[in-house]
Amino acid sequence: MRGEANFALTVNGANCISSSQVLWNGSLRATTYWNSTRLTAAIQAGDIAREGTDLITVANPSQNAATTAASPIAVQSKSPAAKTSSVSISGPNTCGDYVLILTGTDFTSEYTCVQWNGASLDSWYVSSWQFTAWVPAQQYASLVATVTMVNASGSTSAGIVLQ
Question: Who wins on pLDDT, 125 or 46?
């Protein structure tokens, strides 16, 4: 996944030889031969720094530069999990509802919702350090609540006690 560290890529196939080499988007990578059906290649974090599709190719240099067809591999971004450092609530407004304010780090617009004791709230991304949500009066009536932010790459939670 995008944003991850270095890793070993396993390539399974057929007719690998001890001099087979793995190419990542046409560039050679340090390759380890295991057997005629398995190679591993050292992939650097920089190789996966951008979003998109990368091409993996195996070359057998001692066999007249025979090269396998390129196999595409799609690598998608992975946002860091947000870290909530504080949760505050203000209100009620004229309708009796409250505004929940979460502050922390690594907030993104990818977050799909803020939950209050498991129930999704209408919520808005404000910045990389702030998120807000509407808490209906009937949900606010619970004196203890667990607030959770959810996105595609995980979630972060913060427990709050209302008084």
Answer: 125
